[in-house]
Amino acid sequence: MSNGLYIHIPFCIRKCHYCDFISFPAGAAQIGQYLHALQGEMALVSAHMTPEEKNLTSIFLGGGTPTCLNSCQLGNIMANIREYFTWPAGIEVTVEANPGTLTLDKLKQLRQQGVNRLSIGIQAFQDDLLAKLGRIHRKEDISKGVTMAREAGFANLNLDLIYGIPGQTMDQWQDSLARAVDLGLEHLAAYSLKIEEGTPYHEAYKKGNLTPCEEELELEMYLYTIEFLKSQGFHHYEISNFALPGKESRHNLIYWLNHTYLGLGPGAHSSWRNRRTANPGTLEEYVTNISTGVFPAQVEEIITPEIAMAETMFLGLRLTEGVDLEAFVQRFGVRAEDVYGEAINNFVDKGLLTLKEGRLHLTRQGLPLANLVFQAFV
Questions:
Q1: Which of 106, 112, 127, 207 has the greatest number of C-beta atoms within 10 Å?
Q2: H helices present in 264-376, as ranges
Q3: In this structure, are residues 297 and 277 in contact, taking their beta carbons and an 8 Å threshold?
Q4: 62 is in which domain, residue-wise?
Q5: What is the CATH number of the domain that holds 174?
Q6: Which residues of the chain have pLDDT under 70?
């Protein structure tokens, strides 16, 4: 099983209008408190881990915007990871970034500290859409950021794009995809915009001041993305993710293959030792727990074999290669067909699932209806 480490850095220059992740602007004092508490959590957690559990297969710093921290602060986190965990040579180490927070010095420092993959949230190449989303960067920052990343030595870049933005046209989406590919990236994640509760977008929607993208247009954008990126040599390996051969996100595959991972930092989640846990979502409570020697993570759910099987099915079906049915038997001692036969047969008959070479996966028709399929395994 994989042992992935996720570290949540909950700071942003400014929160985007669509974002419902745990993040907020912060001053030097709050960042200092966070870094001290994060080191404390690493010490507390690693003291209760076996040597095998400490052996990491991937590291991912997400947020928030990790690169709103300075080089010294990011270096502090990297040094602490090396102190409390085993960081084997050659593992994938990813840091999320916003183009508006990148400098060549910061990128060089990250590369020297062992970061070998950068995930840059660009979202769009049109300034009017970036402004609507509440992003702090503009289109000229994107190519500048990619150029600096290459100069710093990064050979594995992911770019995030969003489609289905209110007011976004098909031409704009096609232009964004083409510009992203022209930058020579290795990986692209294309997500449809969701209007989540508690965001400025949701408030605007409730007041009638925001019109969501039409479903037909959103579907057209998604299907175009698949065909266009395929024509550019990208492998569509997960519902929203595309990679050049061998550049699939190793860390995210841990989630989709339902392997174990540890989450540190405010609001971080873990799936560990057959338990699902979550850290407090506020910096204050997180810092208080650590300072008193209390594990910040609270058990949300015991992962029974039944839950693990269900999650292995619907998470695995996010992958275009689908669920390896023989691996399912080896892991759980039962056949997926014996547990979920009715659901599988139903969706195969409807043309949404197909069984091929020992793998169960979504069909092209099933991809846009994936959530409907997943619900049958919950």
A1: 106
A2: 283-291, 305-316, 325-332, 336-349, 370-375
A3: yes
A4: 3-256
A5: 3.80.30.20
A6: 1-2
